[in-house]
Specification:
single chain, 395 residues, alpha/beta, Rossmann fold, seven-stranded parallel sheet, six-stranded parallel sheet, 41% helix
Length: 395
């Protein structure tokens, strides 16, 4: 196939240690083997307070990297974040207009919704193909955070999202639930939406298992409202078991709230710790069972990247989620864990109690199946090739 001139318009890029940044870098390296690739990104800011000098970038690259001086807002505030998106979009549009003769396709993994809208709009005008990668659905994500503004957000922002998605050559989503939602609410054609699972660096995912005196449940990830980690803490706390411990590893806006909830169970062995990227494998290795949870409504349109990391760690997974979501489907298809419905605290407690007494052989077998399924369906190799072919229009 003829080589293409590809622009990767991304809101994050290494040295930022986040999943989307890794995806954009892997994509740039992969596509640059047979195409001319230019990456456009803002200066690194995510996560806030991170020392980017501790995560050096590889200078031996086959693609061009343009860092624009757009406005950035690492703090999660709505108006600054909206302007951040708008500013990035304006800078990328300026580059596209200047180099329009040498661009065949623009892959957009940018901030919603302003930057996506500006990029798609100029590409439509210049007859340049676009592939839009959707990591979160807006305005729904905003509505989950600020339900009082639901009507306003829908009125102002939903038309923007419909324009973006209807004018993209291809829309990429990260789960089948997200695809169903977009088809139903944006009136998109199914053939124009492709599912590509997010991946992580699986070489760092596995570590030798650590034997503990206590049966160990581990949650590792963001301590955010959408995760509804209180369900895990309350279910475990109600056990009142001296034979088990729960480790909550990570940071986020719900940190203090969750610690206060844990104080309601003084007899329970509940520990909070940070989870720097270089310690993820070590923390997961401590687990007999890895636990994740999602607030109702979130699981239908999202597939958390922690599930991929969990599965590559060769551990069984306990998911506390609503029924008929991608997480439930993957765990049941892989036969690598258990699913309990969200907001059913008695069932959560009972399942944890059952797992504490489960034969170690069963846990190991489920952990092994977890890694096999992940390698076949959720790996970097499988999904990077799939996404690359979507961008070059080979599928």
């Amino acid at each position: 196939m003829k080589a293409k001139n590809i622009v990767i318009a991304t809101c994050v890029f290494p040295p930022e240690p986040v999943v989307s940044a890794t995806i954009s870098l892997d994509l740039a390296n992969y596509l640059a083997k047979d195409n001319t690739v230019t990456v456009i990104s803002p200066k690194p800011t995510r996560p806030e307070g991170y020392n980017f000098e501790d995560n050096p970038v590889d200078k031996n690259r086959q693609f061009k990297h343009v860092v624009v001086d757009s406005y950035t807002s690492p703090k999660s505030k709505i108006l600054p974040r909206f302007y951040e998106s708008y500013s990035l979009g304006k800078h990328i549009v300026k580059y596209i207009k200047k180099n329009k003769e040498n661009i065949d396709v623009v892959y957009i993994n940018s901030w919603p919704l302003a930057s996506q809208y500006l990029i798609v709009k100029v590409c439509k005008k210049l007859n340049i193909e676009t592939v839009v990668h959707i990591q979160d659905i807006y305005p729904e994500t905003l509505i989950n955070k600020l339900p009082a503004l639901k009507s306003l957000f829908y009125k102002l922002l939903l038309p923007l999202d419909i324009y973006i998605l209807k004018n993209a050559r291809t829309v990429v989503t990260i789960s089948s639930g997200m695809k169903k939602h977009l088809v139903a609410t944006r009136r998109l054609e199914e053939k124009n939406i492709k599912i590509v699972y997010n991946w992580q660096n699986t070489k760092k995912a596995a570590a030798a298992s650590i034997e503990n005196e206590l049966f160990t449940f581990v949650y590792l990830g963001s301590l955010s409202p959408s995760a509804q980690i209180e369900s895990i803490i309350e279910g475990f706390g109600a056990l009142n078991s001296s034979k088990a411990q729960l480790i909550i590893a990570g940071s986020g806006s719900d940190d203090e709230k969750l610690k206060k909830i844990a104080e309601n169970y003084p007899e329970a062995n509940i520990t909070f710790t940070l989870a720097p990227s270089d310690k993820v494998a070590e923390i997961q290795a401590k687990a007999d069972v890895l636990v994740l949870s999602l607030r109702e409504g979130v699981g239908k349109i999202a597939l958390p990247s922690k599930l991929v990391s969990y599965m590559f760690s060769k551990k069984p997974v306990l998911a506390i989620v609503e029924s008929d979501c991608d997480i439930e489907k993957i765990i049941l298809d892989a036969d690598c864990g258990w699913v309990v419905q969200q907001n059913q605290q008695e069932a959560i407690k009972n399942k944890m109690a059952e797992l504490i007494t489960t034969d170690q052989k069963i846990l190991l077998e489920k952990g092994a199946r977890s890694e096999i399924y992940a390698a076949q369906n959720l790996s970097r190799e499988v999904n990077l090739e799939k996404l690359s072919k979507i961008i070059t229009n080979e599928v």
